[in-house]
Write a structure and sequence with these properties.
The protein has 182 residues and is α+β, with helices and mostly antiparallel strands. 31% of the residues lie in helices and 36% in strands. The protein contains three helices and eleven strands, in the order H-E-E-E-E-E-E-H-E-E-E-E-H-E. The strands form two sheets. Strands 3, 4, 5, 6, 7, 8, 9 and 10 form an eight-stranded antiparallel β-sheet that branches.
């Protein structure tokens, strides 16, 4: 009897460990191959957040439209970029994630043929509890979207990486440094 109980407890511990590792492992496969580059810490104009970005990239002006603040960081070739949105919403993080997933599925399926969903769900990849959605098209172009709660009530951050396959590891390494300041 003690062996059965021990086995059952060991089995549940294995399941819990497997599930929590799944939240992190999706992106670890990309981080193993990232190129070391020179980065600089970027803080938005409102001092809401900061993250490391490649030092040869440029930042666009901070904009505000319909309760959404956003900023873009572009590579010199204008192909790879980060976009940071600060969204005001009455939904909780899980509800907002579900809404965004449906929007992403609708928008991307109309624009990109051969789109593959590589992963989605809750993740511990960033320093903050968040949800992610990762797609790749037939040519290997990736879109990774994260959503997380800010320190302000009813405000969330949505981080989007748009990257060619070879640049994704470097961009994930940079976005992993994202800090919520307020």
């Amino acid at each position: 009897m003690k062996i059965k109980i021990g086995f059952i407890l060991l089995f549940f511990a294995f399941l819990l460990t497997s599930c929590s590792k799944e939240k992190q492992n999706h992106f670890n496969q990309y981080l193993d191959n990232f190129d070391v580059i020179e980065t600089e810490k970027t803080i938005d104009d409102g001092e809401n957040y900061a993250f490391e970005m490649p030092s040869d990239w440029y930042l666009t002006m901070f904009e505000q439209r319909n309760n959404i603040n956003f900023e873009h960081a572009y590579s010199k070739d204008n192909v790879n970029r980060f976009t940071v949105f600060k969204i005001k919403s009455d939904e909780d993080l899980n509800q907002l994630n579900e809404t965004l997933i449906e929007d992403i599925k609708t928008q991307l399926s109309l624009v990109i043929g051969g789109l593959e969903i590589l992963g989605h769900g809750e993740t511990n990849f960033l320093k903050h509890p968040s949800y992610y959605y990762h797609t790749q098209d037939a040519s290997g172009f990736n879109v990774v979207s994260f959503i997380m709660k800010s320190k302000q009530n009813d405000h969330y951050y949505r981080l989007i990486i748009e990257a060619e396959k070879e640049h994704l590891p470097t961009m994930l390494h940079c976005i992993k440094t994202f800090e919520i300041l307020k």
